[in-house]
Structure formats: C-alpha cells, structure tokens
Design a protein that fits this description.
The protein has twelve helices and 15 strands. By secondary structure, the chain is α/β, with parallel strands linked by helices. The chain has two domains: 17-252, Type I PLP-dependent aspartate aminotransferase-like (Major domain) (Aspartate Aminotransferase, domain 2), CATH 3.40.640; 254-377, Alpha-Beta Complex (Aspartate Aminotransferase, domain 1), CATH 3.90.1150. An eight-stranded mixed β-sheet has the order 1-9-8-5-4-2-3-14, sandwiched between helices. A four-stranded antiparallel β-sheet has the order 10-12-15-13. Bound molecules: pyridoxal-5'-phosphate (PLP).
Length: 382
C-alpha cells in the first residue's frame, strides 16, 4: 500500500505559472509591482464580473487589515466578527487597537447568525457603542446568508467586510463571492483554492477605493519628489513574482473548483448510507460553493459512539491528514476576554466537525485510500 502523505489541501500548479515568473525575470520586474501584478488584478476583476476593482496584496490578512483601515476602524472602536473562523479574520481588529465582539454561527451555512448579529448590535448600541464594521466569512467556501446579513447591516448602517479568503469561485444567486461586502477579501495562501505561494487581494466597489488601498499598501506616499507621508503606511503590495504564479493559477481556477466539488460529491457518496455523519452542503440552489474544504459533522449518538476524533486518528494512522473545524475565536486564549453573542452552535460544530482531504490534485489512488479507511471505520466493505 502506498503510504505517501495525503494532505488536506496542497498547492496545485496548472503549468503556465513558471512562464509568467520567467517573464518577470526576463524583464527584470522583480519588485512589488509590474505587469504580472496588473495582469492578476485584471484577471480577477474579469472573473468577479460585476465591476468591482481588485488590488493585489501580500496576504489575505493584509487585505483584512487594510479593509478595516478603509472602513475607518480606529483604536477604541468595536468590530463584530464571526467567531467560527480562522484567526486571520480577527487579528487585524487588534492591530487597529479596536475591540472584537464575536458572533455565533447558524446551522444552515455555519456562518454569521443574523439573529445573534442583530442582538449584538442592539446590546452594543444600548451600551453607547455603535459597531464600526461586521466581518462575515464564507466558511469552507459556503456563502453566508447573504441577504439576511445584509439586511441587518443596512438596518443599522454598519458596513460589511466580506472575508472571502476561502470562497474564490463560490457564488450566491449567480453573483461571485468577494463582491457582497462593502469591501471584500481574497487569499492565495498555499492551501487555498488557488495560490501565489502567499498572497491576497482587496475587492472594492470603486477604482478610487482600490487606489486608496494601494496607497496605504505602498507606505502612504504623498505626491512629492521626496518621501513625504501624512498617513500611516504599510508594505502590503503583492510581489510581481508571486503574481506570476497567480496568473498561471487563474487559468486553472475553474478546474480547481470543479475538482473540489467532485471531492465533496465523493464524500457525499461515501456517507450517504452511514447514519450520523453528514457532509456540509449548501442549504439550497441559490448557493454555489467551491467546497474549498469538504467537512463532515459526526453525531456520536447516531454512529454507535464513533467520534470525529476516532476518525481523525484512524486517517492519521494511514498518513492521511484531516483536521477539526476552526476553533471558534471566543474560545481562543487570545480572544476569550472579549464579548460573545450567541449560544453553542459554533462550539458544537467545532466539537463534532472534521475537514477531510479536499485538494484539487488528489488522485484515484488517494481517493481509494481515503475511502477504504472511512468505510472500514464503519464496518463496511470498500
Ligand atoms: C486563509 C484565511 C485568511 C488569511 O489569508 P492569508 O492569505 O493566509 O493571510 C483569512 N480568513 C480566512 C477565513 C482564511 O481562511
């Protein structure tokens, strides 16, 4: 049996990445600007297809940070944030010296619960605090409740920072994720649906706002022949080398989405007749997920005591990587002192959820190994 490591999500090159990187070397654009950066931005703008402007940055985290800066978040402000997410959604709130307030998930999309969100807003307003922004996340590529979250945000005139780091290629009612927030965020980290090795982008409704983001991302240089600064600057621009990888990856983005969705179908077929295990799936046909990661929920009361941890260890013994869902931020040592609104939805998801190998580059042999472990666990023939 082949025991090479099967990863949760690993980089998957398309083939033309090195051509764009070579061009950068040939033309000496080895800098955080150049034709690949501009090209990557244009490719993304075309892909998002709703007139949004895109600024390429060094990471998704940098994009979230600049998003908060653009929304005017300052020291002492309050920012509402989905609790169940990767820490990169929340850390930039602290970079700004602002206070995070964490919100529970709902069970349909595992994302921001609109009811808990509104409760949080009302409670904070009663305390005399008007929250400055809402950070909403499309977990594992499943869109959050776009309309319900927008309705709450609009009712209180609070802008949405849409963390679409996991959802490039997902859409809701035919509109691409990344374009629903007042500002959107994409990530091209090594484990994401496409990668630039490390990188990200900010999505803005206007070119003027994109230019403001790039101004901040390139040290906030005022117009002058010397170096003159009136605002805090950052070094957050994407390298033209990384953008070369990104241009190659944009050519295969649709293939990656199709392969990841096929992995989701693969798990649906395996767990179809296994009681107590459900594969995380969009609630209805308005939602289209890239299924960046395929995730399952395990209910030990219906699986004869089988837990996600038993499954994780059995996969690990066969050199197959799987991982619990994101541990909610309100349970993290660094964030537990901040307010939290909701019940135990995100906590329960964390306790019972598991992400399974989902890469767009998995082979039939990999799938056979995964399937054999999973079926064996439940006493079924592979
Ligand atoms: C990956 C990720 C980020 C951060 O992106 P980087 O490019 O790694 O900085 C932010 N939010 C979520 C939900 C992510 O999964």
């Amino acid at each position: 049996m082949n025991k090479s490591k099967i990863w949760l999500s690993s980089p998957h090159m398309g083939g033309s990445e090195q051509k764009y990187v070579q061009e950068a070397f040939d033309t000496n654009w080895v800098a955080p600007l150049g034709p690949n950066v501009t090209g990557m931005e244009q490719d993304l703008e075309q892909y998002l297809a709703n007139g949004s402007a895109v600024g390429a940055l060094s990471s998704g985290t940098a994009a979230i940070h600049l998003g908060l800066v653009l929304l005017g978040v300052q020291a002492g402000d309050t920012v509402l944030c989905q609790s169940m997410t990767f820490s990169a959604s929340a850390n930039p709130i602290l970079y700004q010296g602002a206070t995070p307030v964490f919100i529970d998930s709902e069970l349909d999309t595992w994302n921001l619960c609109p009811v808990a969100l509104e409760k949080a807003i009302i409670s904070e307003i009663v305390k005399g605090i008007k929250p400055k922004a809402i950070i909403a996340v499309h977990l594992y590529g499943v869109p959050y409740q776009i309309e319900a979250v927008r309705a709450v945000a609009d009712a209180y005139s609070i802008p949405i920072l849409e963390d679409s780091a996991e959802a490039l290629g997902s859409s809701y009612k035919g509109e691409k994720c990344g374009t629903f927030g007042d500002i959107g965020v994409l990530s091209f980290n090594g484990n994401k649906i496409i990668t630039t090795s490390g990188g990200g982008a900010i999505v803005t409704p206007t070119t003027a706002l994109k230019e403001k983001a790039i101004f901040f991302a390139t040290q906030s240089r005022d117009v002058a022949p010397h170096y003159q600064h009136s605002e805090i600057g950052y070094n957050y621009r994407m390298s033209n080398i990384c953008a070369g990888i990104g241009r190659g990856q944009m050519e295969v983005l649709d293939d990656h989405v199709a392969n990841r969705r096929a992995m989701h179908d693969f798990y649906v077929a395996i767990f179809n007749d296994i009681p107590g295990v459900t594969v995380f799936t969009v609630p209805n046909a308005d939602y289209y997920a890239n299924y960046w990661l395929s995730a399952i929920l395990v209910d030990p009361e219906k699986t004869n005591g089988m837990t996600r941890e038993t499954m994780r260890l059995a996969l690990e013994a066969e050199n197959i990587e799987s991982r619990p869902l994101w541990k909610p931020m309100h349970l993290q040592p660094i964030f537990e002192k901040y307010p939290y609104y909701g019940t135990t939805v995100s906590e329960t998801l964390f306790e019972n959820g598991l992400c399974l190998p989902s890469g767009s580059n998995l082979t039939d042999d990999d799938r056979n190994r995964i399937k054999s472990v999973l079926l064996h666990l439940f006493g079924k023939k592979a």
